[in-house]
Amino acid sequence: MALLDEIAAPRDLRGLSPAQLGQLASEIREVMIDAVCRSGGHLGPNLGVVELTIALHRVFDSPQDTLLWDIGHQTYVQKLLTGRRAGFDGLRTRDGLSGYASRAESEHDVIENSHASTALSYADGLARARELSGDTDRAVVAVIGDGALTGGLAWEALNNLGGAPQRPVIVVLNDNERSYAPTVGGLAAHLGKLRSATGDGASANVFEEFGFGYVGPVDGHDIAAVEDALGRARALGGPVVVHVVTEKGRGWETAETNELDRCHVVRATPPATAPSATAAPASSPAWTAVFSDEMVRIGAERSDVVAITAAMAEPVGLLEFQREFPARTIDVGIAEQHAAAAAAGLALGGLHPVLAIYATFGNRMIDQMVTDIALHSAPVTLVMDRAGVTGDDGASHNGMWDLTLFQAVPDIRIAAPRDGATLRALLREAVAWEQGPTVLRFPKGTTGADIPAIDTTDGFDVLHNAPGRDVLIVSVGPMARLALDVAGRLGEAGVGATVVDPRWVTPVNPTLVEAAAYFKHVITIEDSGRVGGVGAAFGQALADAGIDTPVRNFGLPREFLDHGSRAQVLAHCGLTADAVTDAVLTRMTSERTLTS
Ligand SMILES: Cc1ncc(C[n+]2csc(CCOP(=O)(O)OP(=O)(O)O)c2C)c(N)n1
Ligand SMILES: CC(=O)[C@@H](O)[C@H](O)COP(=O)(O)O
Ligand SMILES: [Mg+2]
């Protein structure tokens, strides 16, 4: 790796000849393919921006000039050019490099939110700040993908940027014609027209109409051409869009020929690790696959059920439904807010929409959930995959805010399946509910074997019953496995524990609240935020009912959780059988001491 080893910082790129730049691009691809196939990560997007990143760092002087990457999943090349080559093999591992841009890692990484369509707003804010402080020599450059540009937030920013001819901001549109799948809708069609325009300036150009200068389209794999385009944009001044055409997965045949998603994400080679109590065996199906299968069955039975995805049909398990029922599958682009409001419209039209997203992106749609869906009692089912700790994608990707946010919505019903069988059953109950919205949440990974109920009472399942009502364990969704493990350990210590699974965690089940009165202690275990989570709601319900059984909540702290495996992050949060058992026994011992 002769050349890449010489690049400690972007300034080292400046003296390289065109031939050396070509060699460097090849070396970067080789390093990324090798490392990311082992660690897992966003290989396709990064293979597509090798030349673009080199050109950006040659034309602009980061961090003096500011480079902002929308989402940040395509910043591996920047990592390799900014002194992080040595850590690259530890990508996405605990204490290793983040899989996204990371402010802690480098002064070249300025934003790290990883939720799409935000970079232009940061750019607008930064440019305004520089204008107000007279610090106008520093360029502000935002790179945004054609997928991220389908998000409404990006257009709010374009509206502001284009209306300020005096403020220089360069928007680099990285157009590879895809999010995961090909980008859809009117914008995709317009970009297609711009890509094939003859350059006579005759055809309409939405960016120019918004007040931007427009440079392009330019071949994003031709470093000299990209540098020339960036230089021209800088010279133009004011807001300018540089339209760069790239190929996702470029230089790796496996990605180039992958019609599904150009290897947007590749999976890690599984390490040989000891099984953990909270992780289900890898041999069982993925939660997403179970959802996918049941959706197809439901679709065949109910012609009013429609599926909505925000540019992630395959990752959220809607691909099979789309193949079976293409007319009843809607891809709105990366547009979660619109997806939710459009779902309300579909429900007003007599259909039952199932909107499937990753839980972290549910944060985007809280207002639509409150005022467009719940206020209108719209029968919409929101399915949140990757709920709870997702782990290796880091702080912004954990689905840990959903219960806190959605529990606050009036009349909402939220279910948390514990295994594949309850996922199927609860999905059916959700789409059968026509009085208002329902939410179904499940985690990343595999389901494990089904966990049978030993009894079902008034809507909740009893999973374990030991004599002596010492502790009632209310377990939420997939935490049932951990709860049963804790109950077993408590039993060995002479403490009788009963484990119940509420299935529908919101609204709080009143029979379960009454049952809590017969126990000395209640503990709740959930893979979501302790603040405003299921445990908090359960404790509140007990207090409201005048039941004074003490409640201890085990869940995720109000913290941004660093990347690592799901098991590592849960352990960091004290969500292991050992930690929970110890905490319960310690509490019981100290109470006994106090009362004796
Ligand atoms: C709000 C939001 N929704 C969904 C995602 C998941 N996601 C990550 S990358 C991606 C595709 C992005 O497409 P594009 O911006 O064109 O970048 P590319 O990967 O093609 O370079 C999606 C949908 C996200 N990061 N943020
Ligand atoms: C949602 C998103 O940004 C993805 O690209 C993510 O990084 C991959 O997540 P999974 O590995 O959970 O599918
Ligand atoms: Mg794209």
UniProtKB/TrEMBL annotation:
Swiss-Prot/TrEMBL keywords: Isoprene biosynthesis, Magnesium, Metal-binding, Thiamine biosynthesis, Thiamine pyrophosphate, Transferase
Entry-linked Pfam families: DXP_synthase_N, Transket_pyr, Transketolase_C
Binding residues annotated for thiamine diphosphate, in chain numbering: 73, 114-116, 147-148, 176, 336
Cofactor comment: Binds 1 Mg(2+) ion per subunit.
GO cellular component term, pick one: cytosol
Catalytic activity: D-glyceraldehyde 3-phosphate + pyruvate + H(+) = 1-deoxy-D-xylulose 5-phosphate + CO2
Gene Ontology BP, a term: isopentenyl diphosphate biosynthetic process, methylerythritol 4-phosphate pathway
Listed InterPro entries: Dxylulose-5-P_synthase, THDP-binding, Transketo_C/PFOR_II, Transketolase-like_Pyr-bd, Transketolase_BS, Transketolase_C, Transketolase_CS
Positions with a binding annotation for Mg(2+): 146, 176
Requisite cofactors: Mg(2+); thiamine diphosphate
EC assignment: 2.2.1.7
GO molecular function list: 1-deoxy-D-xylulose-5-phosphate synthase activity; magnesium ion binding; thiamine pyrophosphate binding
Domain Transketolase-like pyrimidine-binding: start-end pairs: 285-449
Pathway connected to this protein: Metabolic intermediate biosynthesis; 1-deoxy-D-xylulose 5-phosphate biosynthesis; 1-deoxy-D-xylulose 5-phosphate from D-glyceraldehyde 3-phosphate and pyruvate: step 1/1
Function: Catalyzes the acyloin condensation reaction between C atoms 2 and 3 of pyruvate and glyceraldehyde 3-phosphate to yield 1-deoxy-D-xylulose-5-phosphate (DXP).
Summary of subunit composition and partner proteins: Homodimer.
Family per record: Belongs to the transketolase family. DXPS subfamily.
Protein name, entry field: 1-deoxy-D-xylulose-5-phosphate synthase
Naturally occurring in which organism (per UniProt): Streptomyces niveus
Gene name of this polypeptide: dxs
